[in-house]
Structure prediction request, 387 residues.
Amino acid sequence: MKILHTSDWHLGHTLYNYDRTEEQMVMLLQIVNIVREHKPDVFLLCGDVYHTPQPSAAVQTMFTNALVEIHDANPNMTIVITAGNHDSGTKHDIFRTPWKALKVYTVGSVDANQKEDMIIEIPGKGYVIAVPYANERNMPKGLFQELLDIANEKNTDNLPVVMTAHTTVRGCDFAGHENGSEYAVGGIDSYDLDEMGTGYDYLALGHIHHGQFIHSGRHNVRYCGTPIPVSFDENYKHSVSIVEITEHGVKPTVEEIEIDPHRPLVTLPTEGVATWEDAKELLENYPNDIEAYIRLNVEVDDFLPVEANAEALMICEDKKCRFCVINSRRLKKNRREAKVMSVQEFKTEEPIGIAKRYAEDMGIEFDNDMKELFNETLAALKEEERL
Prediction:
């Protein structure tokens, strides 16, 4: 069985109020061409199709048009889509029946009474166990192993068994995710790998944006990562994965196919920080004809000049690049000071980061129990938004 493994498209994502439709469409066209060239048996999209639970009509149209193009590029291929924590599970479930006409299977939510709906047979090729994101409170205990046992009972021909999940697995490299830890990334608590059960030939993961294998001893557990970066801190290669499994019990082979960014995210300077004057010079010297988003890493003593953002925007006025943000790094001082944040900095800060700063300013230790309570509350709010 040959699989194209992708996830975390985050369609509808905007970067500092810049619309990213153009580069998202370029990314989708590259994926269509990869499908046309490699002719996989299965196309796995493992969650976070959209960036918000309520995407606009234009963004949903972009997605549905892309699905039709992907199907037409290889009509015999089965497409399996699961919801992520950024998606509305019910939106994926609504169109489950009509999508089947194009061999598209969407799984938006976990229903303990409808486990068979999460097991998709690929005739003559294998089985896909499609597990969408579910809040820890709504995930039945032992579900992964139960689904694997059902699939393996059906698998009398010793065909490959693939399972998907959109979650955090302990031991992953969460570079690029702000305020991530070994306990939780992006508001999702970590699973130990052994909680995911045994009996799969390949575990296709979504949620973590850095493509990587998770140590399993069999080289068969993988995050494919995002096809294009979502933040400036995702300064690594972005790709989709082509996975081939000859039979049940055999180690898969994996090939990464890099996605060319139409408009890369560039930080100046590329390492460390610069003074404001040096940062302006770097921006002035950036080539006029290169499409890119630009972040400036600037070290300041107290505050940036009030006109700093306006200056940066004026420098880029006749360039193809798009200035996004000044990432201020304040000089360390001996005395403890509360950080003064600009509106732009506040908008880009993760909620837990703001809570941690507030606790520090109040002289309160933001310990692991407090982090866990905060993440649980935040996850509950996000779950309500998804429904």
The first strand starts at residue 2 and ends at 6. The radius of gyration is 22 Å. Residues 109 and 270 are 41 Å apart (CA to CA). The chain has a mean pLDDT of 91.
